[in-house]
Write a structure and sequence with these properties.
It contains four helices and four strands. It is an alpha/beta fold and 122 residues long. The chain has a single domain, classed as Rossmann fold. Strands 1-2-3-4 form a four-stranded parallel β-sheet, covered by helices on one side.
Amino acid sequence: MAATSTRPGTLLIGVTGHRAIRDPDRVTAAISAVLDRLLADGSVPIVITSLAEGADRLVAELVLARGGGEEVILPMPLEDYERDFPTPKSRRQFANLLANASSTSVAAPPDCPPGSIRIADR
């Protein structure tokens, strides 16, 4: 697993949440307010996320918009994880956010070959 940045002035933010967000505008406003308070001292935010649909991506986008970065921990090999996103739009959003990551690691065991994890049918 990649080392996480701990430079002075860096604020590490771990995120995990629901895929479906009932009131995205309200949730976005609430998370933005918290981020603004936490970053008022000039800290640079780094979000640690799996970039799952929903809350993970929302926070990642808000952190990037504030000049922060991402460290991504995938729950399974990339090829398996990408299949879990049901639409081309979701896969593009994931790919775009993943491209911004300063580091990417996989939490699955190292001997877990791509294609060996079965994604449940929706």
